[in-house]
Amino acid sequence: MLRRLLIVAGIASLLAARAVAQEADYGIGVPVTASFGAMDSQRLRLFNPAASPLGANFRLMFYPTLRLGPHWFAYAAIQVRRMPYFYYDAFLTQQGMQADVIQGYVGYSLHRGPATMVFKAGQLTSAFGSFPLRYDDAENPVLDQPLSYITRIPVRADQLLCGTSDLLRQHYGSVNASCGGTAGPGPGLTPATPYGLPGMQAEISASRFDARVQTTSSSPAYLDGWHISRQYLQWAAGGGFTIRQGFRLGASAFRGPYLDDSVSPWLPAGTTVRSFPATGTGVDVQWARGRLSATGEWQHFRFDAPNFVVSPQISSGYAELKVRLTPRLFTAGRVGYLATGSVLDTQGVFASSFAPTLRATELAAGCWLRPRVLLKVSYEFMQSAGQTGSRYNILGLQLVASFKPVEWAWR
């Protein structure tokens, strides 16, 4: 898999991306963000108590870009990292190299008066949510990601839950449901992904208004790559209004099937996986004034499922604040939560929630050592309802450097 991804990355680096210079109609470039990360946390010892609580790894982000004339362009975002690198990687058993084509698409832009329209086709980040646009380490003022983009909830796409009692015995991360599908334990769904989906998208921006509409072949909660035969049309849309410079309000939503075909034999008669969609709605805000900037999101997800009258639901949100102390120094913080809703199965068994509420508070400081070299340090407090102590807390350091090894423009 890694070899195939790297081959795709190499091809994309020749075919993809962003305009290198505003004044040039034709150009090619490959901006790179290289990051070194280190962490200290008991999370690294969850599966092996004898393991060291210290870890250090790296991440490379490649952004190959190509513009062919005033309208056509191509873009890619390719991630190569050694795990565990992210804070959430420390909860996983995976180690070693991992490569992902987060984006890789062909686009066409059009200008009509004050309006700009853009059409894209290929591997696209979801139109749902706003955080995926800040996935680069140089854009993220802290080190971790919001909970809805990284938490594996107690629901699987390739297994069916028998009801409320079956759901209550599951845990974040691993799921082993009892009413059909792929046998054995496995990872739960992530409500919203920061990674790419095969699809098409149309965007428009005019004055203070912006909007995007997207169709994809897999759900933001359950990624299917180009090689997967299971393809069910999804839709996602988002938009926003800039009230004044530096202050924008936005909203987004998605809906479509999320269950895998492996559960089809166990579905109620007369239904298919299309009968049980996943639905997400969200609002977001961005604000900046002087030395202060803030951003936040609130999201709600529902996963329709057989054997339930009130299906599993998740709500999540975060607020983030950044304070620029000097041209080089800043502090930042993010507080967030993820909570489960009430469920009621067809047998009449009710629960006010089906998993503990998660809360994360991260405090960070950053220093631009050079114009394109950033050093960040953060400490995250991770709490789960009913648990105490600092077992899931984490101290991290990140050194980020951005550069352009390839840049060529003509005409």
In words, what does this structure look like?
By secondary structure, this protein is mainly beta. The protein has a domain at 105-391: Beta Barrel (Porin). The protein has two helices and 24 strands. The strands form three sheets. The chain has a 16-stranded antiparallel barrel with strand order 2-3-5-6-7-10-11-12-13-14-15-17-18-21-22-23. A three-stranded antiparallel β-sheet has the order 16-19-20, with no helix packed on it. A two-stranded antiparallel sheet has the order 8-9. The longest helix is centred in the first third of the chain and has 14 residues, at 2-15. The radius of gyration is 22 Å and the shape is globular. The model is unreliable at 1-23 (pLDDT under 50).
Topology:
Blueprint lengths: L1 H14 L10 E4 L2 E9 L13 E9 L2 E4 L3 E12 L12 E17 L2 E11 L38 H5 L5 E2 L10 E2 L8 E11 L2 E8 L17 E11 L2 E11 L19 E13 L2 E12 L4 E3 L2 E12 L4 E12 L2 E3 L4 E2 L6 E13 L2 E12 L9 E10 L3 E4 L1
Antiparallel strand pairs: 1-4, 1-24, 2-3, 2-23, 3-5, 4-5, 5-6, 6-7, 7-10, 8-9, 10-11, 11-12, 12-13, 13-14, 14-15, 15-17, 16-19, 17-18, 18-21, 19-20, 21-22, 22-23
